[in-house]
Amino acid sequence: TYRIEKIIKHFCLDINASKTAKLLGINRNTINHWYNVFRRVIYAYQHQEFEKIIGEAEIDESYFGAKRVRGFRGKLKRGRGTLKQPVFGIFKRG
């Protein structure tokens, strides 16, 4: 259980499976298995929650982050690979 808690922590910190395997000293295939289990659980929960939204819903996205990073020279990327963090929101009416 302690090992699984460590894997969950790395999953939540968005550390890839290869790096997690190296840091924890566990086989990469084992980490991939657990990461897939976590993804399936998240998907099932989100699918169940989504079915509760019946009727009109409003969806919007926004991007947060610095316009310029100190010490970063050159043009900032646009689109994919940008430094800004996307945030999505869903609001159920009624």
UniProtKB/TrEMBL annotation:
<protein>
    <submittedName>
        <fullName>Transposase</fullName>
    </submittedName>
</protein>
